[in-house]
Design goal:
Residues 57-158 form the Cytochrome b5 heme-binding domain. By secondary structure, the protein is α+β, with helices and mostly antiparallel strands. The chain is 34% helix and 9% strand.
Length: 187
């Protein structure tokens, strides 16, 4: 007859054996997996937002999550959906981060037009663009962030469209960046 302690010993031994084999074959105790389920920030977020599971931020609140405070996660928004990109802090933090201009901002228009470096492109305002094409590009980027195991959606913008309704349409982009077809190159 097995006691409770014996069951724990067997399970512990199996976990140890799994970790040893994993280290032997992949130099990682988790078989090479480095996604959100091993990230303590993911569980902290899940705990803090339980039972709702999502947060709602205004544009002004989103700006606080730009990477300047190491104690806060880094969020980006793409057409009202907010994603945690803290796993790639070096890419999204100024001054050296290649994508630091997106941190703490709504980036839908910039991603749809590939116009990097124009501040008026950091908005969800799609006026003046081919809306079908722009929404297709936005959907590709949202799918990219939702498909990566190290990023996850944390919530939505409360006032995404209200901010720009009274503003002028952003000027056309004259020098869009050539983005490769394989969006997966963004780490």
């Amino acid at each position: 007859m097995f006691s409770v302690i014996d069951v724990f010993r067997i399970l512990g031994g199996l976990l140890l054996l799994n970790s040893v084999f994993s280290w032997w074959f992949t130099s990682s105790t988790t078989w090479g997996y480095e996604g959100r389920y091993l990230d303590t920030q993911y569980y902290k977020f899940q705990y803090n937002t339980f039972p709702k599971g999502q947060i709602e931020l205004t544009i002004d609140e989103l700006m606080l999550y730009n990477g300047s405070d190491p104690g806060l996660p880094i969020y980006i928004a793409i057409y009202h959906k907010i994603y945690d990109v803290s796993a790639s802090r070096s890419l999204y933090t100024a001054p050296l981060g290649r994508y630091s201009m997106m941190a703490g901002k709504e980036s839908a228009r910039m991603l749809a037009t590939a116009c990097i470096g124009k501040n008026d492109e950091l908005t969800s305002d799609l006026r003046g663009l081919d809306e079908e094409y722009a929404m297709g590009e936005i959907f590709k980027w949202q799918s990219y962030y939702e498909g990566k195991s190290k990023y996850w959606q944390v919530g939505y913008l409360k006032d995404g469209d209200e901010v720009w309704k009274d503003k002028e349409i952003p000027s056309p982009c004259t020098k869009p960046l050539k983005i490769p077809q394989n969006v997966g190159s963004l780490q």
